[in-house]
Amino acid sequence: MDWRADYLPIGNWVAYAIAGGLIVLTISVLRKLDSESRNQWIFRSLMVGLVISASIGLIQAATGWGLPEAQLQFRKDAFGYAAMGLQPDLHAFAAHMLLGVVGLWGYFLVCKNKTEKLLIALTFLLCTAGLVASKSRASLLIALIALVILGLIYCYRHSKKIFVISIIVFLAVITTILLGA
């Protein structure tokens, strides 16, 4: 072994110390902000990261650029290659896209700015395309179930009549799928 290998465990501790310091710094900055500024600071940076990652994932799905050799043959179909974005594998990329598909709806509901709501909706659409491009069936199923549950909760809070109709339609669709399969 090389003599520098003796110092490798110290590198892990340095990385943990830097990560811990950044967490403390971020928390201290967030505590000084009011609630609306705090939400904007957190969610706008999250949306920028999601847009960048989804865009790179969609480019990968269309062209195969940046994918490992083994990934170029995995689930190649009419939608292209299985995208990984900036993540190490497609499931990590799909989980990152789930933040945009499911997680941004809470911020969408509390956001008052129409321009920002439009940007959130566009981020949602881009992340949905990225989630489909990842070809992670489990993550897509999680997204669909979560969105149905969130939609039912929204209907329950705003109109009990629409909620009852939605439950009946949802149960009819599930029954049809289960009996048809």
Count the DSSP helices.
6
Give the class from helix and strand content and strand pairing. Answer: mainly alpha
Distance between the termini: 58 Å
The coarse overall form would be globular
Give your account of this protein's structure.
The chain is an all-alpha fold and 181 residues long. The chain has 6 helices and no strands. The longest helix is centred in the N-terminal third of the chain and has 29 residues, at 35-63. It is globular, with a radius of gyration of 21 Å. The termini are far apart.
SSE layout and pairing:
Layout (H helix, E strand, L loop, with lengths): L7 H25 L2 H29 L26 H21 L3 H21 L2 H22 L1 H21 L1
Key descriptive features of the protein:
181 residues, mainly alpha, 0% strand
Task: Describe the structure concisely.
With 181 residues, this protein is an all-alpha fold. Helix content is 77%, strand content 0%.
